[in-house]
Amino acid sequence: MITVTDVKRHLKRFTGLNDSEIDDYGLDIYNQGRAKLLKKIGSYITEEDFVGDTVASQQNYALPIRCSKISNITVLISSVRYTPTIVLNPRRWKQILTTNSSEQDIPTFVYVDKNKIAFWPKPATSTSDAIEGLMTVKEPYLTQDDETQGTIAVTNGSATVTGSGTAFASTHVGWFIQLPDQMWYEVSAVASATSLTITKLYEGTTSSTANFRLGQVSMLPEEGQMTPVYYAAMVILLNKEKATKAALFRKLWVDESEALAEEYGEKVNLVLCGNPAANL
Questions:
Q1: 3-state secondary structure of 176
Q2: Using CA atoms, how far apart are residues 67 and 72, in angstroms rounded to an integer?
Q3: Would you say 180 and 154 are in contact if contact means Cβ atoms under 8 Å apart?
Q4: pLDDT tens per residue across span 167-213
Q5: Which phi and psi angles does 273 have, rounded to 5°?
Q6: CB atoms within 10 A of CB 136
Q7: CB 41 within 8 A of CB 260
């Protein structure tokens, strides 16, 4: 796994930038390269399911904050899954709303509006986990250094990591933590500054006092996490008029991004969550 701290270390070695320069613009260029690569790879890496409840008489439902695009929405009613027609045009949606209809659980239309969806007709009853969708997630801008303060205790077969002198926070959900077995585990929840939960059970040896690394990691596949670092090194070296060295990193960027796109890339039809008018 390549954390932000690793990215900064590599950029410093590749380009000769100092720490301040890397913080000022080196990470910006790295994040630009990462976004380019994620776009090139496509939905295989960035798609996630989301689930929600329907509520009687409620028309609007918030989308997950990480949603950037939607490719499908269905509603489960009495063991049957229905697929309403997606509406993108605000004018068309207003026309639909002027049509009288009694509340019913089987929706005809679903409107995607910025960070929410709306059903027509409104649901007649409340149903848990009725809404299912497939979304492309937004990856956060990666800028935060690793957290290594304190020590941890872990138990083989447990998903709980207990800290001593640690500063775990809710913002660490989605980060990865390197545990005593040297493996990386995704953080699924943070209960307090000294307790967090990982997405799968710890596979290493039980330890009562151990060091750790907790860092921001790209959703790129592990074999591609260095690729945007090469992009950043290329751009920085070109700006420093070091064309020969920049060409070496350009080759690494092009070769690895093409290999990743060939392995993971696919084309799908997607609906933008944030700007439905752009899809008309």
A1: strand
A2: 12
A3: yes
A4: 999 999 989 999 999 999 999 999 999 999 999 999 999 999 999 99
A5: -70, -40
A6: 22
A7: yes
